[in-house]
Amino acid sequence: xxxxxxLKAYIAENAENSVAVLGFLLLLSIYGLVSSFDEDEVLxxxxxxxxxxxxxxxxxxxxxxxxxxxFVQNLIQKHxxxxxxxxxxxxxxxxxNQSVDHLLRKHVEISAKVISESNCKxxxxxxxxxxxxxxEIDTLETVLQCISDNKIESVDLLSQVQSRILELNxxxxx
Length: 174
Description:
Blueprint: H1 2-13, H2 18-30, H3 39-49, H4 53-61, H5 68-77, H6 81-90, H7 96-119, H8 126-149, H9 155-172
Helix pairs in contact: 1-2, 2-3, 2-4, 5-6, 6-7, 7-8, 8-9
């Protein structure tokens, strides 16, 4: 318990360290210390590491599976679509296919808009526009990886994402 408290204090001071957060959650799980900590705080920590495959599995082993619906809704409100998809697929939530397809499309749409607005609208500089295209390509590749990791069957979305990546590469002159 002392180690867990020390690690929790470390996390509070080093909020950007996702490895420490995941280590803390693993420690709670392994030694059965989950009930010794505030459940809401633990769920917030899961939000921070939700992109980790281990975190998705750990969520259920820590006895939090009954909180999955609320957790997913919270991630959706924060536009953490890729993280949400991982949890929906892992916990076979209702309307999985429809929800997953919609969330991934929303992620692509929001990311493209944010990247474009923040980088391209204000300048005609080629290097800045290329950087924005690279960021969008990274986002799209993350979506492709999520589709692959979770064995999502959405041929239309897959084709759309791949086509957009090709278009962005053409725009960069590759």
